[in-house]
Write a structure and sequence with these properties.
Layout (H helix, E strand, L loop, with lengths): L9 H31 L12 H10 L5 H5 L4 H16 L4 H9 L1 H10 L7
């Protein structure tokens, strides 16, 4: 009545392994980007890979108080705080508000530009 066809799941496993490898490469690239941003701002690069400490250092880089970490943990408020954070990040590296909007909307493009471009930390 019903016929079931056996399919080899190795293709799906290969896709999963490939996906994991691509995600690890992307993660390593963004770690390098944030490492470079930290060093441009005069902070140790290794601080970019420590959870919560990297947020604390980024807040110090953009000139915001440390208690803003709490605001990042509140749903909906964190969206507004992140927008302000990215606008401040563009400002402290001498970039325009338009670049800050680029950081907000297309951060996967503008973070590498900020890291490896000619932007200098002006504080």
């Amino acid at each position: 009545m019903y016929e079931y066809e056996y399919s080899d799941p190795s293709g799906l496993a290969a896709f999963g392994v490939g996906y994991i490898i691509i995600m690890l490469v992307v993660a390593a690239f963004f770690i390098a980007c944030y490492w470079k941003i930290f060093t441009k701002a005069g902070q140790p690069g290794w601080a970019s890979i420590i959870p919560f400490y990297n947020l604390y250092i980024m807040l110090m880089i953009v000139g915001r108080p440390a208690w803003w970490i709490i605001l990042f943990l509140i749903p909906c408020v964190n969206i507004v705080v992140m927008i302000l954070f990215y606008l401040d990040l563009a400002r402290v590296f001498g970039k325009s508000t338009g670049f800050g909007v680029g950081l907000i909307l297309l951060s996967f493009i503008f973070i590498p530009i900020l890291a490896f471009g000619d932007a200098e930390y002006v504080g």
